[in-house]
From TrEMBL:
Name of the protein: AAA+ ATPase domain-containing protein
Residues of the full protein shown: 247 to 511 of 533
Organism domain of life: Eukaryota
Record-stated family: Belongs to the AAA ATPase family.
Residues of the AAA+ ATPase domain: 50-184
Record organism: Cryomyces minteri
């Protein structure tokens, strides 16, 4: 019996255009993702090896998972997502076996991506004193035997890169580090627009002003503000629907007030 959840192979559908502020990250990834796919012969001729491991790091809720999925979608790779904490098993050797199983699965599904969310749960250097040493070694061994974009590419996310075992960051392992920070003003505008574009938004809602007021919000927090505002509208809609009435024109929108209310929460 294993405590490991069953592994699912997904075909993600997240495009770069679904991620507000993704332009910078996309740029940072061009050499790592585009070159190996477009110019494999040239890279080989120059003896440039393509990266097999990319570490996405930054604060929670700021699109690391979305970015991993977009990489897979745009490069046409199958996607296997696992959480670091899922590998912390009580039986000796079980975590290592589970990890090898993931890589087997990924090889069968190649070209594919394995995405380790919260990689620090298995890759923290402090785990070296405990049984963690074996899981890190297993991960390193498995990464030595994969082919990157043409075979199996490993992506990982963490908000504590500083606690990772340095062995994980050596060439041939996670040798590309990409910072994914909180959305800047422009990105916040994009996220709000993305999250309201298919909804009845009052044209008087000032998206730029909302973005200015939400400095320091994560992408996930912005999405939740948009959801709260939409819920206020939904509440009005349900009340009138129950009464069998048509919404008046002023009530038929998600309004600035709905956003003010959401931001107050
Ligand atoms: P964690 O470290 O908590 O796992 P994460 O960085 O992986 O977070 P995601 O899971 O990618 O963050 O984002 C969480 C949710 O927040 C997404 O599903 C999405 O709804 C929203 N979100 C975050 N950033 C953005 C963004 N830049 N554009 C659009 N949606 C975003």
């Amino acid at each position: 019996p294993t405590a490991m959840k069953e592994v699912f192979i997904e075909t993600p559908k997240v495009r770069w255009t679904d991620i507000g502020g993704s332009a910078d990250v996309k740029d940072a990834l061009t050499q790592v993702i585009e070159w190996p796919l477009k110019f494999p012969e040239k890279l080989a001729e120059l003896e440039l090896e393509s990266s097999k491991g990319i570490l996405l790091y930054g604060p929670p809720g700021c699109s690391k998972t979305l970015t991993a999925k977009a990489i897979a979608t745009e490069a046409g790779l199958n996607f296997i997502a696992v959480k670091g904490a899922e590998f912390i098993q009580s039986y000796v050797g079980e975590s290592e076996r589970a990890l090898r199983g993931i890589f087997d699965k990924a090889r069968q599904a190649s070209p594919s991506v394995i995405f380790f969310d919260e990689i620090d749960a298995i890759g923290a250097s402090s785990r070296g004193q405990q049984s963690g040493l074996n899981i890190v070694t297993t991960l390193l061994n498995e990464m030595d035997g994969i082919g990157g974009l043409q075979g199996v590419l490993v992506l990982a996310a963490t908000n504590k890169p500083e606690i990772l075992d340095p062995a994980l960051l050596r060439p041939g392992r996670f040798d590309e580090l990409i910072y994914i920070g909180p959305p800047n003003l422009e990105a916040r505008i994009e996220i709000i627009n993305l999250r309201t574009r298919s909804k009845p938004l009052d044209p008087d809602v000032n998206v730029a002003a909302l973005a200015l007021r939400t400095d320091g919000y994560s992408g996930a927090e912005l999405v939740s503000v948009c959801m709260e505002a939409t819920k206020s509208y939904m509440k009005r809609w349900v009340e009138l629907e129950t009464l069998g009435e048509q919404m008046s024109t002023t009530e038929a929108w998600i309004t600035q007030q709905d956003f003010d209310h959401a931001l107050g929460k």
